[in-house]
Design brief:
Helix content: over 70%
InterPro entries: MFS (IPR011701), MFS_dom (IPR020846), MFS_trans_sf (IPR036259)
Number of domains: 3
Strand content: under 5%
Strand order of the largest sheet: 1-2
Main location: membrane
Radius of gyration: 23 Å
Order of helices and strands: HHHHHHHEHHHHHHHHHHHE
Number of strands: 2
CATH architecture of the largest domain: Up-down Bundle
Organism: Gordonia malaquae NBRC 108250
Subcellular location: Cell membrane
Mean pLDDT: 83
Structural class: mainly alpha
CATH class of the largest domain: Mainly Alpha
GO molecular function: transmembrane transporter activity
CATH topology of the largest domain: Growth Hormone, Chain: A
Length: 533
């Protein structure tokens, strides 16, 4: 360990790290917290299946759309200020379901919370990268990435615990309380912003909202409507058009929202790709395993959350040291090894059957979380390191946008493959059922188990057949996710940069990116980062 590695953080910097990590954990936990409460919400509010889908996805869609413009606003007007605004909006939106609980009000409240989350998420990372010494920046980013990666499990665990004692509205009481607490804490951390910033890229901001929004909307609707549905096809088509408009505008703009040439840099581009793949497979496995634990093992929502909780241990521990390992081993080795470990974990999950035990589930998830711990923090650090300090808000927003897009794709792909596998294998049993039982059995394993339970002892054969059909879907979705992770590793083997030379950092200024693209880019605005207590 060098002298630079032993630079100690001040008490104020440690407190800033705590506030930033808790804030990003709140954003991610809120995304997953309602998964376990959807049945309770349906009974209490009379929400349809489509409305329940949008209770969850309305938050994700708005967050994904607005995170890039929000990151630019943080660079321009102050990262702490934008974090404070985001926490205030998030907390106010979380109060609404406590006052009015009709389905459409609930969807609107979640969308409003997504606006707040979009302001919060990039600020939590850019506050750290702009305010920490270069020698400790990697460690701070590693801790941030570990907490962000564990946020989904924390949300499922917290909501499961609350639902064991109180109603579904208790989740929003918890979100509001944590949001208000962090809002007060945010006033105690330092402010940072870009001095003399250029004009805001309004056209680029509008274009990226449409580009991301339309693509994510199509991804969300595809499992429900079908991938060939006109609405889904139109969403993808218009999203591609908006993306082309965004890219062309950004290439021509004097002060772009996001200089798309950054993606030609190996660190920035491969880091963004790696994070997309990581969150695609991670949220895909959450969708599959939560249902597996509840429907096959019969676990409660809290029990299923506790069963997945050990995943957090290797993820958090490795994320803290992965940046240090990356400086010695290189981004390529870390990301490729991590994704291959994730692929191996999915392969073992695909081997689960009706006789499997919890141990058979636990050790593949530990392999996957080890892989995620190896690759999450280095990929995030690569994005930030390849961007000048005054653009760290936008870099953080790119990191966050790739997470949201990857999560949306993962849920859509895993859900579609799981549903298709179940439907195909349950079909022979449906023809022998009474007409009134066919719909619930065809829809889901939960519906089939309910029909089997009402049938008494005679329903055991149906329950076993439906569970077997569901396991076929689990096997197929796990194999698809394993192939995606393995393909991502193969691409990164060629794309990601290797270990930097020992004198690489000495030959460039602190604000200069570590990796250079051969494609020329416009000069950065002559701005200096301004720190204020």
């Amino acid at each position: 360990m060098t002298a630079d590695d032993r630079v100690l953080l001040s008490r104020a910097q440690k407190w800033t790290l705590v506030v930033s990590c808790l804030s990003v954990a709140l954003v991610v936990a809120s995304m997953a917290a309602l998964y376990t409460a959807l049945p309770n919400i349906a009974v209490a509010t009379g929400a349809t299946q489509t409305q329940l889908t949008w209770v969850v996805d309305g938050y994700t869609l708005v967050l994904a759309c607005l995170v890039l413009p929000a990151g630019a606003l943080g660079d321009r007007y102050g990262r702490r200020a934008v974090l404070i605004v985001g926490l205030a909006l998030f907390s106010l939106a979380s109060v609404v379901p406590l006052l009015v609980s009709t389905p459409w009000w609930l969807i609107a409240a979640r969308a409003a919370a997504g606006v707040g989350a979009a302001f919060m998420m990039p600020s939590t990372l850019s506050i750290l990268t702009a305010g920490f010494p270069e020698q400790q920046r990697g460690r701070a980013v590693g801790i941030w990435a570990g907490v962000a990666g564990s946020g989904g499990l924390l949300g499922i665990l917290g909501s499961g615990l609350l639902l064991d004692y109180w109603s579904w509205q208790s989740i929003f009481v918890g979100l509001t309380a944590v949001g208000v607490f962090l809002l007060l804490c945010a006033f105690t951390i330092p402010e940072s912003r870009q001095e003399n910033p250029p004009l805001m890229d309004v056209m680029g901001s509008v274009a990226v909202v449409f580009a991301v929004g339309l693509v994510v909307l199509a991804i969300i609707e595809a499992p429900v409507r079908g991938w060939s549905d006109p609405v889904v096809v139109a969403g993808f088509g218009l999203g591609v058009v908006a993306t082309v408009v965004f890219v062309v505008w950004e290439l021509r703009a004097d002060h772009p929202l996001l200089d798309v040439r950054f993606f030609a840099r190996r660190g920035f581009g491969s880091g963004s790709f790696s994070i997309t793949i990581q969150f695609l497979v991670t949220f895909g496995v959450f969708l599959v395993l939560v249902q597996y634990l509840q429907l096959i093992f019969g676990y409660s929502p809290l029990g299923s959350a506790l069963a997945l909780a050990p995943m957090m241990v290797p993820l958090v521990l490795l994320s803290a040291v992965a940046p240090w390992m990356t400086t010695r081993l290189g981004l390529r080795l870390m990301t490729v090894t991590g994704l291959l470990a994730i692929a191996a974990g999915f392969y073992f999950i695909s081997r689960l059957d009706l006789d499997s035990t919890y141990v058979d589930v636990m050790w593949p998830t530990l392999i996957m979380s080890t892989g995620l711990g190896l690759t999450a923090a280095p990929a995030t650090a690569a994005i930030v390191a390849d961007t000048a300090v005054e653009k760290h808000g936008v870099a953080a927003a790119v990191n966050d946008a790739t997470r949201e897009i990857g999560a949306a794709i993962g849920i859509a792909v895993a859900g579609s493959v799981l549903a298709a596998g179940y439907s195909h294998n349950i079909a022979p049993a449906i023809a022998r059922l009474p007409p009134e039982a066919r719909g619930p059995v065809a829809d889901s394993l939960a519906g089939a188990l309910e029909v089997a339970d009402r049938a008494g002892p005679a329903g055991q054969q149906l329950a076993d057949f439906a569970k077997s059909a569901f396991l076929h879907g689990v096997e197929q979705s796990a194999i698809v996710l394993a192939l995606i992770a393995a393909a991502g590793a193969a691409i990164l083997l060629v794309w990601a940069p290797g270990r930097a030379s020992p004198d690489a950092g000495a030959s460039r200024s602190p604000a200069e990116p570590a990796q250079r693209s051969r494609i020329p880019r416009p000069p950065l605005a002559s701005t200096v980062e301004k720190e204020r207590p």
